[in-house]
Amino acid sequence: MIKRTLKQVHEMAEGLNDITPFQSIAIQGVTIDSRTVNQGCLFIPLKGGQVDGHQYVKQALAKGAAASFWQKDVPNPPIDLPIIIVEDTEKALQELARSYRSQLNIKVVGITGSNGKTTTKDMTAALLATTFKVHKTNGNFNNHLGLPLTVLSIEEDTEAAVLEMGMSSRGEIEFLSKMAKPDLAIITNIGESHLLDLGSREEIANAKLEIVEGLSKEGVLIYHGDEPLLRNRIKTDFPDLNVISFGRTEQNDLYPQLITQGMDSTTFTIACDETQVEYEIPVLGHHNVLNALAAILVAKEFGVDDSAIHNGLSTIQLTNMRMEMVEGAKGQKIINDAYNASPTSVKAAVELIEGLSGFEKKILVLGDMLELGPQEKDFHLKIGELISGDRIDKVYTYGPLAEYIAKGASQAFTDESVRSFQDKQELIAELKSSTQANDIILVKASRGMKLEEVVQALQK
Fold first, then answer.
1. CATH 3.30.360.10 applies to domain 3-87
2. Sign of the dihedral defined by the CA atoms of residues 196, 198, 203, 204, in that order
3. Which of 23, 142, 410, 453 could be disulfide-bonded to 166 (CB atoms 3.0-4.6 Å)?
4. Quick check: 280 and 266 in contact, CB under 8 A?
């Protein structure tokens, strides 16, 4: 984490006041939450719509914070306390992180994309950690506040940082990329998330490609080469950029030649120096093979040897609620993928369940996919139409939009095999009564639907 004197922090954050009496105070770490104050940290109060963090400054200092920022337009800053007055506390946080990043002697991997960012981050960090001291984004701290906090938490002896970058509108990825200054950047894919904000997949691709703006001159962009919106734009607009592609097809620099789906792991082979090399990941899904390919490309760029890559892939641990296999109280196998959902990720998850064998019943529990814009009902309907009545036994949906999934699925299923719920407790009761050991259940929806509550209920 950042360890600087208050004088150095004042200079890095462009402080406005005289802090001479306090300039030698040592700062260790940063927080924006007065409830998580650690001894010697810097407290940064933010002005929110409901709460103004400035009202907690004295409390934070009393709990052990060494100093605090204070926004210039907020009246009555504490007198005779170690306060740095700044023009804007949020911008000062970001400027502090930007300055700290420039002082760190590390390699940075920046990751963005519509789906798979967090999984690819976890995989990439696992591979690099076999050889280097690595820091990665915690959870989904990937926005205009989360990224600077992540940067400021990096220890100075760290050799590689793997940073996730999220967005909801144009300009955000460029802002984050210029702060992180990645040496390698990954674009996992282009999906339908944020259609409500950006209007088209073309605009989503343009937004994700903003990651190039902060890439070092010798940097490398690793991208999903099966996506024409990326491949064509890169060829025309970034002809001199160092690029490597991954995907399912032979047009890519790295692609799987064979994928074998197991009960709780996935094996795949890739061509390497005219031989086939086999890898195994302890997670399910062909889409996760693609995430692993991106991570392998980063590892190879860092010079990680193949045995270390094998070891790293075999021990990866993904962030919760991302293709997480758990067991129900009756012995059911439940795939908890309830963290987020888009048409692309739902199709991939359904494809996975359809391809599994050895289970008594295969059951889909699908909730609303949010932020899809004016075509949201049509997206849900098409998901339902894609579900195979021969390879899936039951489809349960939850939410007003997911009802259209049920309508689409009704073409291939009997009325008894497709049910739509608006009450989560009714859905839970039905699943508890109708499922048993050796059933597999996929639970997937956008985060706002909180379908992890269904998983938790089935485990009780």
1. no
2. negative
3. 142
4. yes
Q: What pLDDT score does 50 carry?
A: 85
pLDDT of 112: 97
In CATH, what class is 324-459? Answer: alpha beta
Distance between CA atoms of 112 and 177, rounded to whole angstroms? Answer: 10
**Measuring CA to CA, how many Å separate 148 from each of 119, 165, 331?**
21, 11, 43
Looking at the predicted structure, is the pLDDT value of residue 194 above 80?
A: no
Q: Distance between CA 96 and CA 170 in Å, rounded? A: 23
Please tell me the distance from the alpha carbon of residue 375 to that of residue 242, in angstroms, as a whole number. Answer: 36
Spans of all domains in the chain: 3-87, 104-314, 324-459
Tell me the C-alpha distance between 267 and 418, whole Å: 32
Q: How far apart are CA 191 and CA 231, in angstroms?
A: 15
Q: Strand 83-86 and strand 160-164: pairing?
A: unpaired
Quick check: 397 pLDDT over 70? yes
DSSP 225: T
Q: For residues 234 and 223, give the distance between their C-alpha atoms in angstroms, rounded to a whole number.
A: 10
Beta strands in 146-239 (DSSP E): 160-164, 184-187, 220-224
Classified as helix, coil or strand, 319 is coil
Tell me what pLDDT residue 360 has: 94
pTM of the model: 0.88
Q: Which of 380, 388, 366 is nearest to 443 (CA)?
A: 366
The pLDDT of residue 256 is 95
CATH class of this structure's domain 104-314: alpha beta
Alpha helices by DSSP H, listed for 321-388, are: 343-355, 376-386
The reported pLDDT for the residue numbered 271 is 82
pLDDT tens by residue, 39-60:
999 999 999 888 899 999 999 9
What pLDDT digit, counting tens, does each position of 101-121 carry?
A: 999 999 999 999 998 999 999
**Residue 17: closest CA among 106, 79, 110, 103:** 79
DSSP 421-439: ES-HHHHHHHHHHH--TT-
User: How is residue 424 written in tokens?
Assistant: 């989560």
